[in-house]
Amino acid sequence: MAAEHACAVPPERSTAPNYRPGVRPVHVEDAEALHQLYCELADGRTDAAPAGIDVTREILTDIVGQPARLLLVAEVDGGRVAGTVDVVVVTNLTHRGRPWAIVENVVVADDHRRRGIGHALMEEAIAHAGAMGCYKVQLLSAKHRDEAHDFYRSLGLVAVAEGFRIYLDG
C-alpha cells in the first residue's frame, strides 16, 4: 500500500461518558479526519480503503458542491471529527414526484462509539431527507453486521427489503 493510502492505527477506545456531538456539513478541511474514519470503515480491506489524501481532498471539493448531497460530520472534544454519514437525495418520477434519500458510509471512530454520535448523525440525515420532501430513507448494511442492524432498528428503520449489489472492477 502506498504511503498516501496508509491508514493510521486508530486510538484506543475512550471511557468518557456519553455526550451530544455537534453535527455539521463537512468542510474540505476535514479531509484528513474523513480519511481516517474511512480507513476504520474499510477495516483492513484494501479494496475498500479510501483514496489517497490528495485525491480525497479533490473528491471532497466535488462532494461539497453537489446540491443533492449532504455529507455530515460529528465533532466532539472541541472540534475532533469523530463520525460521518453521507446522504444523497434522488429525484424521482414515482410517489407523486417525491424524492427519496440513500444513506451511505455511516462510521463513528472506534474510540467514540456507543455515545450517541451515530444516533445524532442519523437523526440529522433523516431530518434532512424529511426537509427535502423525501418519502423514504434507505440504506444497505452487510448481512453479518448484527450490531449495526440493531442500531438502525433503534432509529426506527425497518428491514423491509432484500438488498442486492454488484461490485464493478475499476
- Nearest-angstrom radius of gyration? 16 Å
Residue-averaged pLDDT, rounded? Answer: 89
Give the SSE order as H and E letters.
EHHEEEHEH
Q: How helix-rich are the residues, as a percent range?
A: 25-40%
Give the overall silhouette.
globular
The structural class is alpha+beta
CATH homology-level superfamily: Gcn5-related N-acetyltransferase (GNAT)
Q: How many structural units, i.e. domains?
A: 1
Uncertain runs are 13-19
User: What count of helical segments does DSSP give?
Assistant: 4
Structure report:
This protein is of the alpha+beta class. The chain has a single domain (24-154), classed as 3-Layer(aba) Sandwich (Aminopeptidase). 28% of the residues lie in helices and 21% in strands. It has 4 helices and 5 strands; from the N terminus they run E-H-H-E-E-E-H-E-H. It has helices at 31-42, 53-64, 117-131, 146-154, and strands at residues 22-25, 69-76, 80-90, 100-108, 137-139. Strands 1-2-3-4-5 form a 5-stranded mixed beta sheet. A hairpin with a 3-residue loop joins strand 2 (69-76) and strand 3 (80-90). The radius of gyration is 16 Å and the shape is globular. Mean pLDDT is 89; it is low at 13-19.
